[in-house]
Fold:
Amino acid sequence: MVRLGCDMLRTEETALARLCRRASTDKAAAAAGALRERGNREFGRGRYRAALGLYCKAVSHEPPGSPELSVCFANRSAALFHLGHFEVCLEDIARAESHGYPDRLLPKVLLRKAECLLCLGRLQDAADALSVVESKIHMDGLMTSPTHQTLLKKLSQLKVKIHKKERCPEPAPEACGDMHGKSEIWEENDSISGASSSLSLNFDTERGRHLVASQDIVPGQRLLKEEAFVSVLCPGESLPLQDSETAWDTPVTNADLYCHRCLRQLLASVPCQRCSYAKYCSQDCADVAWQQYHRTECSLGALLLTLGVFCHVALRTVLLAGFAEVNRLVKWSHSGDKDPHNSKARVACPGEAPDAGAGTRSIPGCNDTGQYQSSYQAVFHLLPHTEQHNPEHKFLCMLSVVVMCKHMQEAGLHTAVLNQESSEWSSKPKTSEKSSDELSPELKTVAEAMLRHVLQLQCNAQAITVMQELEPGDGAVVNKKPVRLATAFFPVLSLLNHSCCPNTSVSFSGTTATVRASQPIPRGQEIFHCYGPHQCRMRVAERQQLLSQYFFECRCRVCLDELESDVKSVVSMRNSFCCPSCQAPMQEEEDLLCCSDEACATSVSRENLSHRLWDLQQQIKKALDLLRDRKTDQAIRILLKCQMDAGNFLSPEHLLMGEMEDHLAQVYATLGKWQEAARHLKKSIEIVEMHHGPTSEEIGHELFKLAQILFNGFAVSEALSTIQRAEKILSMHCGPQSAQIQELQEMKTCLSELPRSIFQRT
Ligand SMILES: [Zn+2]
Ligand SMILES: [Zn+2]
Ligand SMILES: [Zn+2]
Ligand SMILES: [Zn+2]
Structure:
């Protein structure tokens, strides 16, 4: 136990060193320099998104007001320019100038400014900027160096461009009121905040609190829209623990790419002035975060990273709730009285059946008027399952919470924690607390609440995911996959029970979750969402094992089917091997697989085939690495060989067969071979459809990719029909306002104008 504590502290120290303050230490400067150089390398290879992330990181480490900081801003503006974010690029150029950007380098940056203005259609401003550069270059005297020659060339090119644009101005873009005007039919529930009026909140001992359709629901209908009560950005890939020079060589994580408050994607981040971890999309987010929680969290940053995201969420929850509310509910939980509002009413504690006939008023978490709101009270009433957690886990949680509270006490963060500007508490000098092994009574209350939240999180933590671009290519086809971005409490969303075949889809925008019906839901049926283990991804045994963390056994339709009858799960049927000699299906007999064709009679050990599968996966990984290094020919060769090998021992419906087709489609797309790309992607779509169903979100994303490929290949009518299919599926899962739907609409508009431009080309 003691050693555990020591380890924890040691990790914390290294983490602290890594997060060195912006006090212009040599280390911070070296780190920033290294990051900037790596950014330049990525930039040189055309990986602008990666470069942007590294420059953002460097900006967080440079001491404010240093000339290096101005260079960082200038470099970042270049990445932003290449990514097409012209407005933000201009902001960064202004920042570079205001931080004393070196004079001799200025012309290049000013040219970029002119180009930005040109792209934004601000021709006069662009011309003005150009004349500034021109006089600057001429003032610098002799211009024989190659650098100067390039600058001059660029200058004259830009001049020509401006003249051209001036002579034939582009028509002003038409206002696209089309999408914005289309608002969804939505009637909010009277007693559940953020929920549709088609739902009602029920309670019984078997299912606990749950939501039921109070009228027939159609697919795509919005059932819930809830802002997270609290959310904490997950840094993503774990940071290396050793604090050597190479420790700075960490990959850019989500902590560098998204706003730490609103989870919006960062372009030019505004870093916290005091630590190099927190970054925001705007000064406004930085200020609000500071006021609400970061003034406490800032100096605990390293500790929070070490203790993990659940502890961080627990702390931020109590900070957002405010001490008064935390104190009220903790006190209430001590008293025998179970109604936090009314001392006379006897209401069941969470988990027990409420009084019959009392309506929603007696359902745990509801306020005295029977409303269930996304409030701290609702969070407090989420089940902590205190009895079911194993003792070791509880002990670790307790230890973590106490460590956090001790740090806060020692760092004198009482006032911030208690939301008090001045009180008898804050005036107490911390040195006077000699016997400070004891936590103050207020912090004990805070600790108790935090422990409750950490325990609740095991069952109630909701991951916020985003569709993140995989290794950015040349932008022709955007390949995205869902990535966990943050961990949050959504007290209303938490009312939904789990099913391995849910009737809803959850999507996120920033910190807001939206739940939609993914199929018709008749009146009276319970609303389910999937906590993770989905029938399309795992077999019943794996699902049940994963679900054990939630302290229940899944009794959903597919689990019962798979458990009680001998129905094989869809996963095992479609991820099976075939006979290496004749490709017939294999029959399983313990660890031996036998060919189903008696004439063939081949048998192979499962271990043998698993090994071949592993080899295959390694080869695919290698191909993807080559692709990243733009060695396309080699990548194709390896992938085609993998496909041949795989056909010899994997069933044609195996998910990996689909993945290989998908990779091949991606490679051909980067080469501009659109027909080849489409051909491979269609095969991948067939397999995805077998695994996830024809109206699944997964199919929606695949069709989105196909639409992009067909669009690029000018396959107009096929592109239009694919867009239509993708639109229908994705709007059901993610709603008509989602970014992908907007992109599809833009493609459609573009295609409808296409015939004319094609004629112009030929
Ligand atoms: Zn923000
Ligand atoms: Zn900070
Ligand atoms: Zn199930
Ligand atoms: Zn065979």
